[in-house]
Predict the structure.
Amino acid sequence: MSTDMWDAPLDDQPAASLVLADPDAEKILAAAIMARTDLVDELAMQGFDPADFTIDRYRWIWYAVEEIRANLQPGAIRWEAIDRQLQAWRADGRMPTVPADKNELAQLYIDAAPSTAPWAAQRITKMAVAARLNAHGHASITRARSAAFDPDADIAEAQAELDGVVRQAADDSYIQVGDVLEAVFERAVTPPTTDDRVPTGFMDLDALLTGGWAGGQMVVVGARPAMGKTTFGLGLARAAAVKHGITTLFESLEMGRDELGTSIVSAESRVALHHIKQGIATDDDLQRFAKRGRAIKEAPLYISDNAHLTMPVLRARVRHLVRTAGLRLVIVDYLQLMQAPKAENRQVAVSELSRQLKLLAKEFGITVIVLAQLNRGPEQRTDKKPMVSDLRESGSIEQDADIVILLHREDAYEVESPRAGEADFIVGKHRGGPTATITAAFQGHYARFVDMAQT
């Protein structure tokens, strides 16, 4: 009877005794910090993590130096003081391992060579990274050989775990305020360009946002159903990718790629949406197709219609496109449909999604625009206008967002409204800038919003 490939034993299992470590480097570093306590801060700022020690008694020497140095003069700490601290921790149960004995502490103190500390710390960190990479590799093998292997989910999770193999160095990028003055003065006389801003496609909105979206921002666009969230999102994508050649990713969890493509072509070519859907395009329509077809085809606009989008999958896709295509704008349609991480309740889960999307924008220096559905609050008001507090399920969405824009159309509630065909972009939050309500025209038959001047 043949063995199922999923049940085949691993022929490359790591030996239980395999430890990627350098005991000599750990000993050198433990001795060095006893002789120069300021090394603790200096090495931490360079990214050293005491958790990377593999020998427990040396790691606890580091912790003891951290603990008692605040009460001592800068410089060396006598080994007796270290011993007293370690024994106290051992006695109260805080220290689970056996500490270094007095003889070893004394010898470390005698042998200390602080000048070798940077080398030792780098060596320990390097070995720790190698150990984590080794563990990640074997975990990936186990995952791949599991009968429950899911290519989409497991590869994305493995990629996310791989990001944790190398810990980020501590942030030492602080500077004195005077050092930023030159950059401020230069910015004051240099209008932003598409090199540092992504145009929205709306003149008044660009003016309010000082040229458009900025890298690192998370923007939330909220609306009730049927207000045109997807149409607005696609309009932002078209303005960036088709008009300005800025690489954009549109993640649709609700509409399929064919439907999205139809809306994009209709909006760009000004061909009635129902003409395309019903297959009754006229000669004039075809001429309009021809005029805009090449621009649409060559636009760096990427579309995904994965209805089960998770943060690990999105993060992997963003990383790939940033590296290979210079991605600058991501639009997610829409937040509440994303697969949320496990949490005690839906509100906590959505809060975590919101936070991760903000971190995604900051990490890659891109703009992340998240479409979101509002609760029924607007429908309970006389004027039906939405408010930032109407964002469904989590107040953290508002907190995490740099900009919140609410869509409102009076004719969605009253067909005979005197403002039929108009739409309001209510900028309800603008971190570091003014808020306002911007009026645009809604051309539903072309699946687009446009500046009032274009009508």
About this structure: Residues 1-17 have pLDDT under 50 and may be disordered.
